Amino acid sequence: MDRRAIHQPARPTFSELFTPKLVTVLREGYTSEHFKADAIAGLTVAIVALPLSMAIAIASGVTPERGLYTSIIGGFLVSALGGSRFQIGGPAGAFIVLVAATVARVGVDGLLLATMMAGIFLLAIGYLRLGTYIKFIPYPVTVGFTAGIAIIIFSGQIVELFGLKLAGKEPGPLVPKLMAIGEAAGTINLAATFVAVLTILAIALMKRWRPKWPAMLIAIGLASLVVALFSLPAETIGTRFGGIPRSLQMPAFPPISFARVIDVLPDAIAFALLGAIESLLSAVVADGMTGRRHRSNCELVAQGFANIASALFGGICTTGTIARTATNVRAGAHGSVSGMIHSAILLSLILVAAPLASYIPLAALAGVLAVVCWNMFEKQAFLTLLRASRGDALVLLATFLIVIFRDLTEGIVVGFTLGSILFIDRMAKSIAVEADPSLVQEDVADQASAYDASEASDADTVVYRISGAFFFGAASTVGAVLDRIADQRRNFILDCSAVPFFDSTAANVIEGAAHKARRAGVRFIISGASPQTRRMLINHGVKRPLVTYAASIRDARAQLKGKPETD
User: Fold this and answer.
1) Residue 442 above 70 pLDDT?
2) Is the preceding peptide bond at 545 cis, omega within 30 degrees of 0?
């Protein structure tokens, strides 16, 4: 048997790919100690999620309770059905820009329909097992679009941070928005500004001196208390929205028609794309913190069901949230039950303490989002990529600037395209075609003897070796070399033992070199090709009488000496 044959692992079964991690956790044996750990972690995450869910909903152009519905319904299903033990689902800051634009264009009903459609798309992506490919987004792209989103979200909070009164509706694009804010600078509300600064300072000081305390919730409570006690003229959830309901909304479908589906289709695609990227990135972060491995396609299926259910109950887009997932891990969660408990606690708070939400100042929630934006902008990673290489810097800045000044989806597409071109260029430069005797491979059946350098080439034979992935990006480089050497001597041995991958373009290049060698009367032998490579070449006509094949250079020389060939 050829020892070089690659033994492929057995294809995972459907149950192995799509069994929720909750089932895995329960199969392992779930004890009262595990439940205690999950309960503490769930409470911790709920305390963090409470102000964030409302703040993200308001920034997205919808009422605060819709953010809570998303964390309760969507978050529960993400934990119950997901492929990550520690994933916490809910509304995410990354969606603010897209959701706000969708609400402004098609209203809340259109948003709910787009969210349901995004859920269906996520189900399809998961069941088609495409989750693995979504994780191939280049790192500079993720850093760039996250930083761009942070800038856009912060710009959208300036009005609330300073209590400004705009002359008209707040523009969506960044430059017109900043111009409108500049024109309204004279309407600054000092009370709102004080509340925002108080919130930000309280969060920063508690993160520094009491990092285990729920800084955001305490800061919101402090700001609300100050506004109520001193009757500060700062707008609150109660004055703008009339508070939040003390119950869940009954499930209902939004208005659906063919024209409406076509209208919101681009929004649904954007929601699905960003939701897949954000949730899988969050799951990878959790894996890095715990040493576990998530099931990407199962996670996407859970995200799909969660978005459909969230929209039915009046919620907005659901995805895995990196900050809350990391909080869950740091709080000592054992498994998926903690995320379900987090949702149950949020539901309990709505049922019991909803009237208290009326006292929360909007400037305080804007302060919370300002801190979130500061944390979202990965400053060290951004600077590192700028210094890493010109290619990485180009991908980063292109994504960042397009997200800020054009569109989030365009930023991701352009960044991914540039990253792919950069990868192709680097792979193409990594391939080498050389005559180096020290690289000649021995027959795998004869591992012992050392190679005699004098065997590499002689007066009649030239031996060359290709090293690296041979694909369309490297075809012109390799083809130019082969054209020069394929007719230099009577015998030409091309060693492919160091080629891990051949594509159709590469096979076409080899075919052209083989035809040229045959016309020049040169005998062409390919050595060391893997079974997959040989199959690719033969399918493209690289076979007798153009070439013969050998297991190694030694076997190729044996062919030239008239010994039996190893075709």
Assistant:
1) no
2) yes
Looking at residues 86-106, what average pLDDT do you find? 92
pLDDT in tens, 358-405: 999 999 999 999 998 898 888 999 999 999 889 999 999 999 999 899
How many residues does the structure list for the chain?
567
On whether the CB atoms of residues 299 and 82 are closer than 8 A, the answer is yes
Q: Is 419 in contact with 140 (CB distance < 8 Å)?
A: yes
Measured in degrees and rounded to the nearest 5, phi and psi for residue 527 equal: -115, 155
- Does 3.30.750.24 match the CATH number of domain 433-443+452-560? yes
491 three-state secondary structure: strand
Q: What is the distance between the alpha carbons of residues 479 and 497, in angstroms, rounded to a whole number?
A: 18
DSSP H helices, 135-244, are 139-162, 174-183, 190-209, 215-230, 237-241
Are residues 318 and 275 in contact, defined by beta-carbon separation less than 8 angstroms? Answer: yes
What is the dihedral sign for C-alpha 73, 74, 80, 86?
negative
CB atoms within 10 A of CB 182: 8
Question: Of 298, 321, 304, 428, whose CA–CA distance to 56 is shortest?
Answer: 321
Q: Tell me the sheet residues that pair with 462.
A: 492
123: nearest Cα among 308, 319, 257: 308
- Give the strand order in the sheet containing 432-434: 432-434, 461-467, 491-498, 523-527, 548-550
Other C-beta atoms closer than 10 Å to the C-beta of 409 total 19
> Which amino acid belongs to residue 407?
D
Instruction: Give the torsion sign (CA, 348, 351, 356, 358).
Output: positive
d(CA 50, CA 215): 12
Strands 491-498 and 523-527, how do they pair? Answer: parallel
Torsion of CA 79, 85, 86, 91, to 10 degrees: -30
Query: In the chain, helix, strand, coil percent, each to 5?
Result: 65, 5, 30
Answer positive or negative: Cα dihedral of 484, 489, 491, 495.
Answer: negative
Residues pairing with 523 in the sheet = 491
Rounded CA separation 73/344 (Å): 9
Residue found under tokens 């859970």: 302
Domain locations along the chain: 41-422, 433-443+452-560
* Per-residue pLDDT tens over the stretch 283-315: 888 888 888 889 999 999 999 999 999 999 999
Residue with the bigger pLDDT between 135 and 519: it is: 519
Two tokens at 45? Answer: 């995450």
Structure letter (DSSP) for residue 471 = S
pLDDT band at 446 (very low <50, low <70, confident <90, very high): very low
Q: With beta carbons less than 8 A apart as the criterion, state whether 203 and 367 touch.
A: yes
Nearest 5°: phi and psi at 172?
A: -85, -50
3-state DSSP of 354-395: HHHHHHCEHHHHHHHHHHHHHHHCCHHHHHHHHHHCHHHHHH
Cα four-point dihedral sign 165, 166, 170, 171:
negative
Give the residue with greater pLDDT, 356 vs 77.
77
Residue 444 has pLDDT above 60, yes or no: no
Whether the pLDDT of residue 459 is over 70: the answer is: no
